[in-house]
Design goal:
Structural class: alpha+beta
Largest sheet: 5 strands, antiparallel
CATH topology: Peptide Deformylase
Strand content: 25-35%
Oligomer: single chain
Bound molecules: zinc ion
CATH superfamily: Peptide deformylase
Number of domains: 1
Helix content: 25-40%
CATH class: Alpha Beta
CATH architecture: Alpha-Beta Complex
Length: 191
């Protein structure tokens, strides 16, 4: 009987441990918080493999999913690091982007993009984004990746990259037209 109880207790402990470590949802900070306006710091390459950094990546992925977002940048969870995650099934697979650089391919022009921001509740704004970009970064294994992006992937990457430089979508909209711009867009993607 004691052995049975012990096994049960061990099982219960294991389940609690697994569930508490599997995902931690982080607090998403809102406009007005100074971290959103700071220029985020480069991630030291040797630290990418650190368990704490890998946990931060996992926590950001689960926080993004829980919030119904398609992208989330580290400054939005009050970590001033040059890192973001993005995912929008089926067009954008889960991507972890560390220390990115963007080359805006201006020849392909810009297009309107209606966006919501997880750090600006209730405001969907119409901004302009480049149609095509070249994104270079390190993935979560520390490997260097260099890709051309268009479509929704390019939009999310530009939004998240702005977060690393303290730029929010409210900055990209002319003050005079902002009121008009966020009326009527109810289902904009959150990022
Ligand atoms: Zn945002």
């Amino acid at each position: 009987m004691m052995g049975y109880m012990k096994t049960l207790l061990l099982l219960a402990t294991l389940i609690v441990t697994l569930t508490t470590h599997a995902k931690t949802n982080l607090e998403i900070i809102k406009i007005g918080h100074p971290t959103l306006r700071a220029t985020a710091q480069e991630v030291i390459h040797a630290e990418i493999s650190n368990p704490e950094f890998q946990s931060l990546i996992d926590d950001m992925i689960s926080t993004m999913s829980e919030a119904g977002g398609v992208g989330l940048a580290a400054p939005q969870v009050n970590k001033s690091l040059r890192m973001f995650v993005m995912k929008s099934w089926p067009s954008v697979s889960l991507t972890v982007v560390i220390n990115p650089t963007i080359e805006y391919l201006e020849d392909f022009g810009k297009k309107d993009s209606v966006e919501g921001c997880l750090s600006i509740p209730g405001k969907n704004l119409k901004v302009q984004r480049f149609k095509k970009i070249h994104l270079s970064y390190f993935d979560r294994k520390g490997e260097y990746i260099s890709v051309e992006l268009n479509g929704f992937g390019a939009i999310i990457a530009q939004h998240e990259y702005d977060h690393l430089n303290g730029i929010l979508i409210v900055d990209l909209v002319e003050q005079m037209i902002s009121k008009i711009n966020y009326i009527g867009f109810s289902n904009a993607p959150l990022m």
